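User: I'm curious what two different proteins look like when written out as structure tokens. Can you demonstrate?

Assistant: Sure. I'll show them one after the other, since each token string lines up with its own sequence. Here's the first protein:
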Amino acid sequence: ISLKDVTERIACWPDVTGCLLSQSSGLSLVGTAPHGLDKAAIVAFAPRMFESINKSFTEIAGQETDALVIPSSGTSFHLFRNQDLYLIIMSRLPQMPERHMKVARFVLAALSTRRD
């Protein structure tokens, strides 16, 4: 299965409006964003968001996080990180169902392992 296949299949989940796969450098690998959202900006800011949040989160929780949910009106962003890969899922829902979040983490882990 190709990276494109992965993002296309996730984009077909109920209430998902887009799915992107990118690298920590901010380079977009594959995927689509909803109309009106800048794909390049989304993938460029994902690593920065994790870096900023994790500076504080490490002080609070003693560890970093590899998943962020940013609910906003219209489109919510679900960001997942594994090594240098980022999976960004955009949804109409403020938060995707937990089963979808588990699948997203599993898929990203498998992709990261495949790249090694």
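Here's a second, unrelated protein for contrast:
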Amino acid sequence: MNKKIGVIIAVVVAIVAFAGVYKLYGSLSEGYDAPVVDTTQADYVLHDSENSNEVTQPDFSAPDFTVYDTNGNKVQLSDYKGKPVVLNFWTSWCGYCIQEMPHFEEAYKNNPDIQFLMINVAVNDYRDEADEIIKNSGYTFPVVYDNDGDAAQSYQVNSFPQTVFIDKDGNIATYSSGMLTKEALDSRLALIK
């Protein structure tokens, strides 16, 4: 009998500890706005070559990738050459991804000159749940599916949400790891307009 009580107490303590950590994380991350990293203003870097005086600008070219639209057609980043692009990597099980989606919907409607690609990392998700979120919320932004992880691997996505802002020349202007507020999203969009 004492063994059962000990197990029950251990389970209750574990649940309370998990809930406390979850609440603390939520309160600490609330209102957090990751700094804007403007790569267009990056310092020039000495090129490591035989000519030590050679100076080159860092390469911030956005890597190309292949994802799939809702009908299974291939979509590549290179399809949008010459246009600013926003890549938002998300999953249906990511609460912060879902919380920031209304900001992306509004930004999509207000910025017709910017291509938005809401990339569901399908290799880590359930497609039917992702589709249900989009349908039930009435979102109109373009949703594409990273079925094989090509896009996530190209951008080294290891947490969600992650957003990449690419200028019309195909260079990464800035990126954000974590949920974006409306103001943070607007400030990053200004870098690629």
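A detail about the second structure: The two ends are 68 Å apart (CA to CA).
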